[in-house]
Write a structure and sequence with these properties.
The chain has 194 residues and is mainly α. 67% of the residues lie in helices and 5% in strands. The protein has 8 helices and 2 strands.
């Protein structure tokens, strides 16, 4: 087995899959309606934002109602929880440029790392996946795994709306199925062992 050739093949496959994932992500968010259908605007946004500015100064994730620090406060927490509202809020108090290049570059780098990792995992399993469809399915299952341990787990524990969780999980699975089409084309058992 030629390590250098295999590594170059994995890196090239990862790069091609990352470009595919990145382009699909842009298309999915910019041209298709499914994300916009599951993300809603705040009613009375100005009033809500004014209250947040006044009362929340720290960036982070807030959970409400807050879980009590003392067991003696559990009854009050339970009553608040049952009464609602219940949720989590991701919050960044400083403003930002919505079209800053930083998230786009960061996304491309993350896609490159993830796609190269998927390419490497596929190269490890390729000897048992001689058929193209099985190699695609292997990478698609990485997307299924990611969906299960991310958005679907948050749906179960943190009240992420079902429609949002399903769209995000579906996009992950579709994303890695598309990546699988590229990776399975570039990584074949005979090439890995050559």
């Amino acid at each position: 087995m030629k390590e250098g050739g295999s590594m170059k093949r994995i890196l090239l496959a990862g790069l091609l899959a990352a470009i595919t994932v990145h382009l699909w992500g842009f298309l999915s968010w910019a041209a298709l309606p499914w994300h916009q259908a599951t993300i809603h605007s705040l009613p009375n946004e100005d009033a809500v934002l004014a209250a947040l500015r006044q009362h929340v100064n720290t960036a982070g994730v807030s959970r409400f109602p807050a879980e009590p620090a003392l067991e003696s406060d559990w009854q009050a927490f339970t009553e608040k929880y049952q009464r609602g509202p219940v949720g989590m809020m991701m919050y960044w108090p400083q403003g930002s440029n919505p079209m800053s290049p930083q998230p786009f570059v960061g996304a491309l780098l993350l896609n490159l790392i993830a796609a190269t990792l998927a390419a490497w995992l596929l190269s490890l399993a390729a000897a048992g996946l001689k058929d193209y469809r099985r190699r695609v399915a292997f990478v698609a299952l990485i997307g299924v795994f990611a969906a299960l341990v991310s958005f679907l787990t948050l749906w179960n524990w943190r009240f992420i709306p079902t429609s949002y969780a399903l769209v995000m999980a579906g996009e992950l699975i579709l994303t890695w199925t598309l990546a699988g089409l590229v990776l399975a084309w570039r990584i074949k058992p005979a090439q890995i062992n050559a």
